[in-house]
Amino acid sequence: MKKALTISLTVLLVGIGLVIISCGGGGGGSSSPPAWVHPADANDYISFITSRVEGAQVVMNSGGDAILVWGQSDTNFGSTINYVRVYMSERDGATGTWTHPADINDYISPDGLNCGGGSCFPTSAIDDSGNAIVAWSQNSQAYTAWIFISERDGATGNWTHPSNMNDYLTTITGLNSPSAAIGGGGDAIIAWSEAATLNTSLVYFTQRHGVAGTWSVPEDVFVDIPASPVITGVSGAAINDSGDAILMWLESSSGGSDTRAGWIFVSERDGASDVWTHPTVASDSIAVAGSGASDPRLAMAGNGEAIISWFENDGTDYQVYIAERDGTTGGWTWPADLTDKLSPSGSRAWFNRPAVNSGGEAVVIWRQLDNMGDEQIFMSERDGTGLWDNPVDLSDNISPDGFSVAEREVDIDDDGHAVIAWKQKVSASGTEALFFIERESSSAAWVFGTGIDDYISPVDGRWVSPPSLAVGGNGNAIVVWRQGDGYFTNERLYMSEKR
User: Fold this and answer.
1) Can you give the pTM of this predicted structure?
2) Cα 402 vs. chain centroid, distance in angstroms?
3) Range 318-325 contact pairs with CB under 8 angstroms and sequence separation of 24 or more
4) How many distinct structural domains can be found in the chain?
5) 60: domain CATH number?
6) Which domain holds residue 351?
7) Following DSSP, what letter does each residue of 242-308 receive, concatenated?
8) H/E element holding 45?
């Protein structure tokens, strides 16, 4: 059903430099129809050659303004004196031009020890006025990890970065990478988790009201669950244009993607009253069976439409479930029981990602074993009337058959322009490539690749790491990923862009 339309996304020829797809519509900075530009070859990266890239994330607003952040060592990876720094690139939506760091010394994090303790995953958020924040965890000289932020005023475009290691957001440590969200008017939230005692970790959050607002004293949220040790992970924070906010997290005894014990909790802030409602007991978990859930993911649109997706065991296999928030009423619709799922029965479904727009359209993707035993990407779609179109069986995958997939992401804008990207093996030896499919608008059909050779990453790469993608207004879209050439030190940052 999902593969009814099959059109080549690329004309991928070894030795040809530039790959462009003509797609129609209007793009920022140009009167010509927006078109995809993919990396010409393995040397067409945007990071620095001196060291490997760690985490990377891209976000974009409806005007095409974009922020790209990543972590990278400031010297050669093999050096005894090297620290992982936070780097940032900016895209101007009006012209479509990027401003990248001038050199390896042009980072935004303060001089000190490693961002993220050596695993640097900075996060960013931007609203439609251009207000933006970047947040990360960074070690102090005492090897405690503090949360740092950079802030941009959308009216002026000016950034305020930390001036030194004493210019941190809070003295509460944050060893885990934070989550960041920003809404209309510059309201923002940053959330993270940190150990409170030997066997318990808490979720902390701080909030800012408006661009000129000050960040609040961090608050902690925690629910006593029948498990020990209790490991928490912040799975998402979101704010809409009215100031309604959602904070979602997972508490588990395993700490991983294991479904033996996992409770998903949701806190909500009413934008009109500025009052938070927090869960208090384990039975407040939104998991269908109460516990046993994993990998909760949150998406929220500017009008308050929201989707939370996760996976848990239905008694036979892991399956994908969702909760839906109505943007008008703020009310939630929860799964009726363990049979009320998106994924088809018959195999394990897990590691999901949601996206939703203000028109009520939504897309949820996940990994699931097909009839041949390969993990594939499956997709469910919701139209503006609230009706879901789910996969009919285990052959109704959207990724090409033949080899297993891994990391995946999805995004959708208010015009219904949607992009899904994932990595997938392309050979028995384990060589990986990056794939994507696209729907240009609410009324358009999905455009699928022709097969396992129809990918967008350079052909001379050997593996790819998790993609990040953002879809903005006027046909804009960006996909970024890390890719190596077979050596741990040579992982670079690549970008495909439609504008």
Assistant:
1) 0.92
2) 26
3) 318/259, 318/294, 318/348, 318/349, 318/350, 319/343, 319/345, 319/349, 320/349, 320/350, 320/352, 320/364, 320/366, 320/368, 320/380, 321/287, 321/288, 321/293, 322/354, 322/364, 323/286, 324/362, 325/246, 325/300
4) 1
5) 2.130.10.120
6) 49-455
7) TS-EEEEEEEESS-SS--SSEEEEEEEEETTTTEEE---BGGG--STTSS-EEEEEEEE-TTS-EEE
8) none
Cα separation, 82 vs 69, in Å, equals 19
Tokens of 403: 């080899």
Express each pLDDT in 407-435 by its tens digit.
Answer: 999 999 999 999 999 999 998 888 899 99
User: Helix or strand or coil: residue 186?
Assistant: helix
Choice between 77 and 198, residue whose per-residue pLDDT is larger: 198
Specify the residue for token string 């727009």.
Answer: 357
3-state secondary structure of 486: coil
Sheet holding 231-239, edge to edge: 231-239, 245-252, 262-270, 275-277
Q: Is residue 208 part of a domain?
A: yes
Other Cβ atoms less than 10 A from the Cβ of 291: the count is 21
List C-alpha distances in Å: 10 to 20, 293, 432, 477. 7, 38, 17, 16
300: in domain? yes
CB within 8 Å of 318: residues ≥ 6 apart: 259, 294, 311, 312, 348, 349, 350
Tokens encoding 154: 């959308």
Whether 437 maps to a domain, the answer reads yes
First to last CA, the chain: 30
Band of pLDDT at residue 260, cut at 50, 70 and 90 = low
Distances (CA, A) of 153 to 46, 73, 124, 445: 25, 28, 14, 38
Residue 389 lies in a domain: yes
Backbone angles phi, psi at 264, to 5 degrees: -105, 125
